[in-house]
Batch of 2 targets.
Target 1
Amino acid sequence: MKRKKNLLQVGAMLLVAGFMISMGSVQAAPKDNSDNVRIDFSKTAAPVEQKAVTRPEPQKEQVMTKIENVQLMWQEVPSAVRYQVVILKSEEDTQSNIALTYDQVYTNGLTVDLSGFGSEAANFYWKICPLDYNGRPVGKLHFTKPRPITDGGRINAKAPRPTTQFERMDYMPMYPVFSWIPYGGAKQHEVQVYQVTDAGDRLIRTLQAGEYDVYEDGGYSQPGKYYWRVRSLSGDGTPISDWSEKSYFQVESENPPFAALGDSITHGGGAMSVSPGYLLYDWESYSQVPVKNLGFSGNTTEAMLERFERDVLPVSPRVLVVMGGVNDYRLGTFGSRTVANLQAIKEKCDAYGIIVVFLTVTPINPPYMVSRAHIDHPPYDWQVHQQYINAWVMKQKYHVDVATGLTDSMGNLRTTYTTDGLHPDYYGKKYIGEQVGRYLQMNFSWLTNKLTKKPIPTYND
């Protein structure tokens, strides 16, 4: 698969992610065959007079009467491709009480412009409804209970708000994806990445980004403390917001015992709008054993082989989990060529004293790929090559079959496990992570017993 960073991107599992509309229209990503299948679709306390009492009463915090905007944010919902956000004039949840409606919100947050409502905006309420690809409420979920506009939001925001969840991951991904809630109606953003050193903060990268996220092409293998920030730009590149708060991340100094090399399915992201910067669609999140993410969206097995020395050796894991091939067979690469690349990766692992665990390559769902993600139809014999790859994987000393459980009676990726037909979503990633974690615990207990896993995320399934 290729990666949607100017070139190869249409699957983001190959995988990679998303939409974002902070204040208005939806933009569709151009057709391509990339691995990232995505469609662009503080309170202020008012002074309170103290009474003449022996012990002063605590001052009550009051919301400012003039609200220019509010930056709302909520927990992402599995399988939600977008959200509908409704602003109410009061707690009364009726059609006639609606002040604003946003139907095309492709991230778990929104900056709402309330400047035209004056002081009455302080009494507004808000609610959301998660929607699937077809615009239907996800599962049994409909609208949330209305909440005060000041509950869960930032009043009078002046910059985008970072949404990445690196601090909740066991290890920092080799290739991070930075994401945010846009400020105003900005379609362009600028991201800066700094390394914190004894001599001061050092700017190491400046990235030009679209509406809601940017995929980092340069890997982070040097241990240390970093942070990133983002600001919104106008169409001509002029800054229209302040810089966001600093969002810190740490590249660990000790080599992790387990790492995973792969394409977008390993990199993360899913449901066509959620990037790998979130836990939701990263299978590593659900593994009972902490695993360092070395995935790169859009990778073929040839690309994985080419970056072995650059990305795997600096991490130097004791065990390397390898899954690749979906971008090979869907683009016409013969299974024998894919196996040759995987064999070469195995030989490199043997040469450097790394134990390799292969995962079977997952299936795809061509009808969904073509109709929903606008990905070219794969070769008619793709299943032959997928099966050839998996037959080889199953003969290896260490292997995990994650493909069979995701496959329907026709040999395709189950529709209940995918939105775009290419990448497994929540239940698929959860299944992969749990299978891998159990296998690592069972076969490498001498390593897993010494590790501490960060909390596995839970959602309202």
Note: The first strand starts at residue 69 and ends at 73.
Target 2
Amino acid sequence: MIRIAPVGRALAVVAATSLALTACGGGGDTATQTSQSAAPASSAPAAKGDGTLTLGTLLPQTGSLAFLGPPEFAGVDLALKEINEAGGVLGKPVVKHDTDSGDTTTNIASQSVDKLLAQKADAVIGAASSSVSESVIDKITGAGVVHFSPANTSDKFTTIADKGLYFRTAPPDQLQGRVLGDLVVADGNDTVAIFAMQDSYGTGLADQVQKTITEGGGQVVDRVDYDPKAVDFSADVARIKSTNPKGIILIGFEETLKVVQELVKQGLPADKHKWYMVDGNMSNTNYKELPKGTLTGVKGTYPGAAAPEEFRQALMEIDPELEDFTYAPESYDAANLIALAAEAAKSDAGVDIAGKLMDVSKGGEKCTNFKECVDLLKAGTDIDYDGISGPIEFNDAGDPATATIGIYQYGDDNTYPVKALEYRTGNIAG
């Protein structure tokens, strides 16, 4: 799959003005206002917009990444609260509809996208899973709608054919893979086993981690790319046990709980073999049933700069039951960037928004929230939105050019703190 090159990307955005806009809605749907756009056509006719910015969310309410849903929904909701309190976009309140992305074991995402398109979303925020986004990107971008993920990290999206309409605030896995690989080697693990789920996310991240470890002088003594739908992981863990690695890297989603239980059962606990996790399985809710101390000392990485305390408190006002904050900043920034791009374009049409997303993310006067930024835009000032998740600054592929990766460590209660042990910032390109 080839993503359109820089010039081709711009041409695609222009050409895509003949595509139709679609809207949000669907199962578990909550609307702040009802869209009045005309019904979409399957042949994707001209995208003109209707003057009301309509956002759809395609985020996990069920499935293997359901623990990521609450912070992502909260991030979007907080941004829309602030946007609408500041007067909305194009003089009108922003419309939002929520849907469930499920995971790749179901057809929920496709059905949700159909609902969002039927209600004429100008942009869809989601999915969290790279594989889920990959399964619906053609349907979304083919309708002239911006597809904007706060959590996709698969390297595939850098070169995917997307008509210039796909963006993400989460960085591709080159950077997280380098940070994790460097960490594993620096911790003295000269022999390492990698246990990775077999999909675009797991395989891609494992490839980068393995490359970094090898280049750093470590040895990957075994790598198991497993089926995340498997009921039992005993044979896979036994295979890893036979190599007796000093470090074990776990790249997966919710099923990591079963893997962890099997590692302990077969005599590979974290206090004897150092375990490492990633953004897909770093959770403060998934491991509650484990005996106290099971994850003590386990380290993990996930993208994102340190979120200010006031931001976390604002999220808790949106959802008082939040226990994880993963990808809340990226979701918040995604909604703000879409809204600012619509203001800059003076249009809610998806292709027009896409044409301004790079402009509002770099090269102008820095601003850090919607009201500050939109006031500058209305005064005729070029802006550079720096978000909670980082500076963003989209490159020609729709990826953030630079990003920050946090390194976290679990305590005796099988949870990790809000603040990371350290944050490492770098260019995606290396």
Note: The CA atoms of residues 386 and 411 lie 32 Å apart.
